[in-house]
Amino acid sequence: MFQLIKKNLKGIALIYSLLAPLLMLIEVFMDLQQPRLMANIVDIGVQNRDLGYILSTGLKMVLCALTGLIGGAGCGVIASFASMMLAGSLREELFHKIQSLSYMKIDHFKTSSLITRLTNDVTQIQNMFLMLLRGMVRSPLLCIGGIFMSFLLSPSLSIVFCIILPILITCVAFVMMRSVPLYTQMQLWLDKVNTVMRENLLGVRVIKAFNLEDKQNALFSKVNTEFTEKKHTGTESDLYADADSYSGYESKHGCHPVVRRQYGRFRKY
Question: The dihedral of CA 104, 109, 110, 115: what is its sign?
Answer without folding.
Answer: negative
